[in-house]
Q: What sequence folds into this?
């Protein structure tokens, strides 16, 4: 009985402690961040690709029908063929998801790099730069001055 109470108490401490709350907040923000990346791909990246290629490219429309349903006469879209019972290799949709992932990974990498740089600057402030070396002609003039003082 005491083992169960200890387990429950330990779980409560874990759940209430910052780790669980940080994780929950991270998941919520991550979900919203994923939607932002989807929008970047759909609204910013794809229009540029369409402009460069001079047409309307939608990777989601790139697919291969492995087996069409018998007697199928509907629209030849990935979703319609799959809904009718066909077997579709939706490689264009996969490509869209892969682009989303690469962009997400790039943004996260940049954010982590910025945080690490800021943390490093806070922990190790830059030392004052050393005074430049005295030019040789100034040193020679000082020696002459000192020898004349004697």
A:
């Amino acid at each position: 009985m005491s083992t169960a109470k200890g387990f429950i108490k330990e779980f409560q401490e874990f759940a209430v402690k910052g780790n669980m709350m940080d994780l929950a907040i991270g998941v919520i923000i991550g979900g919203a961040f994923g939607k932002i990346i989807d929008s970047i791909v759909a609204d910013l990246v794809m229009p540029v690709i369409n402009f460069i290629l001079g047409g309307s490219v939608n990777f989601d429309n790139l697919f291969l029908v492995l087996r069409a349903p018998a007697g199928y006469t509907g629209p030849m879209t990935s979703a319609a063929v799959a809904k009718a019972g066909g077997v579709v290799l939706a490689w264009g949709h996969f490509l869209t998801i892969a682009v989303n992932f690469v962009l997400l990974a790039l943004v996260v990498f940049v954010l982590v790099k910025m945080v690490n740089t800021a943390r490093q600057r806070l922990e190790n402030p830059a030392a004052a730069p050393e005074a430049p070396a005295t030019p040789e002609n100034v040193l020679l003039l000082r020696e002459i001055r000192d020898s004349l003082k004697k």
